[in-house]
Write a structure and sequence with these properties.
Distance between the termini: 55 Å
Structural class: alpha+beta
Strand content: 25-35%
Radius of gyration: 17 Å
Length: 166
């Protein structure tokens, strides 16, 4: 019997307008789960339109992850003039979570941020969602503060990028 070779490939790249429907689906699925985990009635990410995503592609770094050519994850990062950045709408399809896609996305985000000269990146996530807090801690983030401005405990997580001195 001939031995078969199986391979799974992740690709993470900058998104294009053609990716907008996939990004919307990924965001809808991931943030529906987030809404349930955080115990929320509604969440802004679920109200997004095609135009909102298009505007983000024009003004932010929007990445999409593919597994065997299928869109399975996405993230958006806005870089500001003061060498800081804000990460948002990070999501991986539920059936594709916990298999390295999120780490692959964050690895590319880190490379882009370093290349852009970003010194600090921040994000918000549900403070009581242990799996997300653990994921971000594993990527070098720490909790800077918490607030209840959106009706639940949100943590502001921060990651400092240290430049290598030559």
């Amino acid at each position: 019997m001939e031995e078969e070779f199986y391979q799974s490939l992740f690709q993470v790249r900058l998104a294009t307008y053609d990716d907008i429907p996939s990004i919307m689906n990924i965001t809808r699925e991931a943030f529906t789960k987030y809404r349930q985990m955080a115990g929320l009635e509604n969440i802004e990410a679920l109200e997004e339109t095609y135009s909102d995503v298009k505007k983000d592609i024009d003004t932010k770094f929007v990445l999409i992850a593919l597994s065997d050519g299928e869109p399975v994850g996405s993230v958006r990062v806005e870089v500001f003039d003061d060498n800081t950045a804000y990460l948002s709408r990070f999501g991986v399809k539920v059936d594709n979570q916990n298999n390295g896609i999120g780490k692959s996305i964050m690895n590319l985000v880190d490379r882009i941020m370093k290349k852009q000269g970003v010194k600090r990146m921040s994000l918000h996530t549900g403070a009581k969602i242990t799996s997300l807090i653990r994921f971000y801690y594993g990527r070098g983030f720490y909790i800077d503060s918490t607030d209840k401005s959106r009706g639940y405990v949100r943590a502001l997580l921060v990651k400092d990028y240290v430049r290598d001195e030559c």
